[in-house]
Amino acid sequence: MPYSNDLFSKEAPKPSDEAKEFMKIEDHVLICLESMDMSLYHLYRIMHKAYNYFPELLWAYIALKLISALKYLREKGIMHRDIKPANILINKNAEIKFCDFEVSKIVEESIVSTFVGTILYWPPERFDINNIKKFDDRADVWSLGITLAEIAYGKRPLGENLDIKDDYILMQREIVGLRKEEFTQKCFKGYPDIIISFIHKCLLPYDERSKILDLCTSELYESYLWLGYFDRFVTEYYLNHIDIREPKSELESSVFERFTQIHTACAQCKVMHKVEDRISNIINCNNVCEMLSVAAFYDSIFLKIACMNFIELNAEIVINSERLLYVPYNIFLKIISLDMLTANEFDIFEATRKWVTKNETETLFKQIRLTLIDHKTLLNVILSSGFFTPEEILEVAKEQVNNPTGMTCRFPSLFN
């Protein structure tokens, strides 16, 4: 069942474009845009403090979003010309937006020759005031490379010991004489070669440097494109828990373990349509229910399809497993419908799920589906709900013992 989606063109990260209020103060017009949580400068400082590094997956997610944003600007004929971590905003919905377009310019005939921007992120060609050669979006590509290096490194990668205001000449020499191999070795310790190679392409001399559209077809962009399916992963795991180093709960631990497994499989893909094949190869009877939980939790359609295709071929084995508790209720019913065989616990499973659904107890739902629950614990959960009488639960427990098929275990309050 093939599935495809243009991940980033649908909701390309644009500049902060949701205007809230307009006001005029003397000769100035102020535009109030939507509030964002922090800049990438603040984010990478928090992440490095929490983790002592910047997680590769989060770095790749940000890189892809920024590439897509620059592509969007290019389509509108705009160069930003002042790309740096402080001018990139992010919120806990995993939205990333450029800001501070004060020095941006509508590109005329794809060339710009003015001398603007923040010096630390300038490309070498901007320092040559005698050079009449005009430049295009490759200037933004250089700034993007330096910005992404700063995120990975955790601090200013160039001019670490310089005062930019006072040491302009020394800063210029360092940028013009930058050796990309030494630079990436310093900034990207522990990162895969595909990321280092991408940064090299951003930091080449002007005539050899990639343009924005080249980045959109780069090996890094295509290899990590699958991350677009997991906006909620970035939100739930990284951005909402940036004050910790380890997962807080069994839910986070389990999902992160499976997500890492998915990443290992997907990172080798050079084209997106092969991701489904990679995913299919790592799904088995021991992890398919957890994979489905990940798919549901992070709205991953392609992962859900891969899991359901596997279950169609292995329904009997999957259904006769307590790991069925890992999947959401609606998917659980679909799995049951694939095969007439059921586990001994079928009716208790369904009764518990109906109770959780009716009471909308999200926390307990996660606890139930991420814990291998024995009969005693499961019955205690049902009892504590107050939804069934102790007598009803006792009758079910007796019936479960006397009838191991489980097909006649019924809660009268739900199955009338």
Automatic annotation (TrEMBL):
EC class of the enzyme, as a word: transferase
SMART domains hit by this protein: BACK, S_TKc
Record keyword ATP-binding present: yes
Keywords: ATP-binding, Kinase, Nucleotide-binding, Transferase
Source organism superkingdom: Eukaryota
Residue stretches making up the Protein kinase domain: 1-225
Annotated GO biological process: stress-activated MAPK cascade
Entry's family note: Belongs to the protein kinase superfamily. STE Ser/Thr protein kinase family. MAP kinase kinase subfamily.
Name of the featured protein: mitogen-activated protein kinase kinase
Native source species: Acrobeloides nanus
Upper classification of the organism: Eukaryota, Metazoa, Ecdysozoa, Nematoda, Chromadorea
